[in-house]
């Protein structure tokens, strides 16, 4: 779900300009004018003679009560003080044909930096170079089973992740010459973030009580990308060529905690703190080469042809990966034979892909446009994974350790996919536009999954077929000035079938047995929008959406002779090893969405805008004993702006989000969400001179799940006051 977005909050650049409240907010997000100290444009009367270049300085901070980490995660801020250059824009003509421009920002505290340098010479080309970096924060707390509300275990409040890139680009733009563009980008991602892969722990020695232990990612990623693009026009045809090479390397670890068998620990103290740490580390590299050619041919104003062909090759390798389990207590190490870990884990995959596109735009008559298209894709993929050796403690007393060779799994697949579509648009009826689209796709894939170790001759051969179709119809109607209607309907159907021609698992492995033979998805959507302007200072937009999403599955049950695996199984009800089940409706989601937007300007100095949306959504699984889920929520906002005088503006915003969807039994994990969020922001802007603008901003936000139970138990609730001031100087 999209978060509520505060478009300009507290003077912070890229990070806070989209001051995101990760509230699991509605699919229709809210955009507010809020408390950003980056200086907005001054009133028109004060900017007529303003200079083109500027620098904006800002300083601000937040005062948080409650969970600091929750505030940082939801607002994408540091929850503390910051300051620096919020915005810089400089442009200078070096000579009559050459221009140098620089823009960027630097906000220590938020660790948000960006600088872009552009040198452009008319009729020759340009050079660009840039650097940017920004930080995001994560909440490292875990969850809990409602009814057993112990303190939530945490990795701490300082989970931070830095993202950034260094870029260079050069372009040749000379008359009657091909346009040539070369670019290089080095991107990186480094730090820690939370993970949804929680682990189950056992607190103390209390029977039938559980904590949900948190996980985190240690991330170290970097990539280098080189691109070359050439564009040229020959007669009535535009031709293009593109080449890309990318090398990426990752060293990522996911760290989790799990509970122990408490019977192995004699004292309550050891039982109360006996959580092992499990670490999964992967050293991964990827090399990608991609090339494409494309063209646009204009036979006439009523007939265009576009074509494209692309080739992609991807080679990935995982080397030196590990899986480790760290036991904190010596007595547990002794009883389990020490820490356990897998080492020297390796794997890899190669993918080759060919794609061809053909599109025609045809206007057979002035009011009718027809656009048919065709796409073909062929893909070959092969992969393997291997654990060269592992050392694993054997749970015996006295403990023994073993070193062994793990099976080698391999995958080979070949896929062909064809997609055809047609778009039709007609505006020959007065005050009305009609349009329709249809798309059909067929995909066939052959997959061989096998164990390459002769000691474990397990394998599975599957044929997968996917048929997709999508149809949409729509109309826009303008019955009178200031009033319009838009109606659209959509139907999609995706049928996926698995024909498992043979399955062999004589080695005893259960992982290669198929569990699904059919998976179908159906989506129907209807939406209606009305835009009405009853008078010059009032406009309304009303929208209603109805969506139904249904999943139907058919699976397999496995019994075998006397409950043991069969040597080879052909999938038919007559075979003793596998029986195909009847089709079931595994999920049916129905959603109603109503939204309203009102903009009113009762006087020249004042405007008011309000938005509200309500979503009613329910998912029915169709299974006895499985709790169905709701996803209902309401969100709304009011924004107002008032021009106190020709140099002073005051704006304010109020937002609200509320959801109450947790209905699971107390003994189960709550993946629904109960949350109330409320925010207020005020901004005062004053044009001191035409080239100097000052602002003062205040914001308040609160997020609350307590006393409503959900998977956070109220431990992530917070309230925050945020204050900032900024000064923009133009020169």
Features:
three-stranded mixed sheet; globular; 731 residues; 5 helices; disordered N terminus; 26-stranded antiparallel β-barrel; mainly beta
Can you describe this structure?
This protein has a 26-stranded antiparallel barrel. Strands 2-1-3 form a 3-stranded mixed β-sheet. The model is unreliable at 1-47, 202-210, 260-274, 388-404 and 560-576 (pLDDT under 50). The relative contact order is 0.12. It contains 5 helices and 34 strands. Strand 20 (432-451) and strand 21 form a beta hairpin. It has a domain at 290-322 and 338-394. The chain has helices at residues 14-17, 44-47, 68-75, 268-273, 330-336; strands at 4-6, 19-21, 31-32, 54-66, 82-93, 98-107, 112-121, 125-138, 143-144, 159-172, 179-201, 211-234, 237-259, 275-300, 303-326, 340-365, 368-394, 400-404, 409-426, 432-451, 458-480, 483-505, 516-535, 538-558, 568-569, 578-580, 584-603, 606-620, 629-630, 633-645, 648-660, 674-689, 692-704, 718-730. The protein starts with a strand and ends with a strand.
Structural class: mainly beta
Helix content percent band = under 10%
Strand element count = 34
Broad shape: globular
The value of Rg in angstroms is 30 Å
Through-space gap between termini: 43 Å
Helix/strand layout:
Blueprint: E1 4-6, H1 14-17, E2 19-21, E3 31-32, H2 44-47, E4 54-66, H3 68-75, E5 82-93, E6 98-107, E7 112-121, E8 125-138, E9 143-144, E10 159-172, E11 179-201, E12 211-234, E13 237-259, H4 268-273, E14 275-300, E15 303-326, H5 330-336, E16 340-365, E17 368-394, E18 400-404, E19 409-426, E20 432-451, E21 458-480, E22 483-505, E23 516-535, E24 538-558, E25 568-569, E26 578-580, E27 584-603, E28 606-620, E29 629-630, E30 633-645, E31 648-660, E32 674-689, E33 692-704, E34 718-730
Parallel strand pairs: 1-3
Antiparallel strand pairs: 1-2, 4-5, 4-34, 5-6, 6-7, 7-8, 8-10, 9-12, 10-11, 11-12, 12-13, 13-14, 14-15, 15-16, 16-17, 17-18, 17-19, 19-20, 20-21, 21-22, 22-23, 22-25, 23-24, 24-26, 24-27, 27-28, 28-29, 28-30, 30-31, 31-32, 32-33, 33-34
């Amino acid at each position: 779900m999209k978060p509520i977005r505060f478009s300009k909050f507290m003077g912070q650049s890229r990070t806070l300009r989209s001051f995101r409240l990760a509230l699991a907010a509605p699919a229709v997000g809210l955009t507010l004018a809020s408390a950003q100290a980056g200086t907005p444009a001054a009133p028109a009367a004060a900017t007529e003679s303003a200079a083109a270049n500027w620098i904006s300085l800002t300083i601000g901070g937040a005062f948080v009560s409650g969970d600091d980490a929750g505030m940082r995660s939801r607002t994408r801020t540091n929850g503390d003080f910051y300051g620096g250059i919020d915005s810089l824009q400089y442009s200078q003509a070096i000579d009559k044909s050459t221009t140098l421009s620089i823009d960027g920002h630097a906000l220590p505290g938020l660790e948000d930096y960006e600088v872009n340098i552009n040198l452009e010479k008319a009729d020759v080309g340009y050079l660009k170079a840039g650097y940017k970096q920004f930080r995001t924060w994560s909440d490292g707390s875990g969850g809990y089973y409602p009814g057993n509300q112990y303190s939530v275990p945490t990795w701490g409040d300082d989970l931070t992740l830095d993202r950034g890139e260094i870029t260079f680009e050069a372009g040749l733009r000379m008359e009657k010459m091909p346009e040539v563009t070369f670019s290089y980008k080095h991107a990186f991602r480094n730090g820690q973030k939370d993970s949804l892969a929680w682990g189950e722990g056992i607190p103390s020695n209390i029977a039938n009580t559980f904590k949900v232990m948190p996980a985190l990612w240690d991330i170290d990623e970097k990539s280098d990308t080189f691109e070359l693009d050439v564009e040229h026009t020959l007669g009535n045809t535009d031709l293009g060529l593109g080449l890309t090479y990318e090398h990426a390397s990752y060293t990522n670890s996911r760290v989790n905690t799990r509970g122990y068998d408490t019977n192995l620990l004699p004292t309550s103290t050891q039982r109360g703190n006996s959580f092992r740490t499990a670490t999964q580390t992967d050293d991964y590299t990827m090399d990608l080469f991609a090339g494409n050619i494309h063209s646009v041919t204009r036979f006439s104003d009523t007939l265009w042809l576009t074509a494209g062909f692309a080739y992609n090759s991807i080679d990935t390798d995982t080397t030196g990966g590990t899986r480790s389990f760290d036991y904190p207590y010596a007595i547990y190490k002794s009883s389990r034979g020490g820490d356990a870990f897998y080492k020297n884990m390796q794997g890899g995959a190669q993918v080759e892909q060919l794609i061809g596109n053909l599109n025609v735009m045809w206007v057979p008559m002035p009011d009718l446009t027809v656009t048919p298209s065709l796409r073909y894709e062929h893909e070959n993929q092969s992969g393997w994974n291997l654990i060269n050796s592992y050392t694993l403690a054997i749970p015996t007393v006295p403990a023994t350790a073993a070193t062994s060779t793990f099976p080698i799994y391999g995958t080979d697949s070949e896929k062909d996919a064809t997609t055809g579509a047609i778009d039709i648009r007609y505006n020959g009826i007065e005050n009305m536009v009609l349009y329709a689209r249809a798309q059909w796709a067929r995909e066939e894939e052959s997959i061989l999954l096998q164990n390459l170790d002769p000691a474990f001759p397990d394998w599975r051969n599957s044929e997968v077929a996917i048929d997709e179709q999508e149809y949409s119809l729509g109309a826009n109607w303008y019955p009178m000035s200031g009033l319009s209607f838009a109606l659209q309907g959509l139907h999609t159907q995706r049928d996926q079938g698995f024909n498992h021609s043979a399955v062999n698992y004589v080695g005893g492995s259960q992982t290669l047995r198929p569990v699904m033979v059919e998976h179908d998805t159906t989506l129907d959507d209807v939406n209606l929008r009305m835009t009405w302007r009853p008078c010059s200072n009032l406009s309304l937009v009303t929208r209603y959406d109805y969506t139904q999403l249904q999943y139907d599955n058919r699976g397999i049950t496995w019994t075998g002779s006397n409950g043991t695996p069969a040597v080879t199984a052909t999938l038919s009800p007559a075979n003793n090893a596998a029986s195909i089940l009847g089709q079931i409706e595994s999920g049916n989601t129905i959603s109603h969405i109503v939204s309203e937007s009102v903009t009113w300007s009762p006087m020249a100095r004042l405007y008011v805008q309000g938005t509200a949306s309500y979503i009613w959504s329910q998912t029915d699984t169709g299974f006895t004993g499985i709790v169905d889920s709701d996803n209902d929520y309401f969100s709304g906002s009011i924004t107002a702006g008032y021009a106190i005088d020709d140099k002073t503006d005051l704006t304010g915003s109020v937002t609200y989000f509320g959801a109450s969807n947790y209905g699971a039994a107390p003994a189960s994990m709550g993946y629904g969400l109960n949350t109330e969020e409320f925010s207020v922001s005020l901004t005062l802007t004053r044009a001191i001179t035409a080239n100097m603008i000052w602002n003062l901003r205040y914001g308040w936000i609160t997020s609350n799940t307590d006393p409503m139970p959900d998977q956070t138990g109220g431990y992530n609730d917070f309230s925050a006051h945020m204050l900032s001031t900024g000064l923009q100087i133009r020169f």
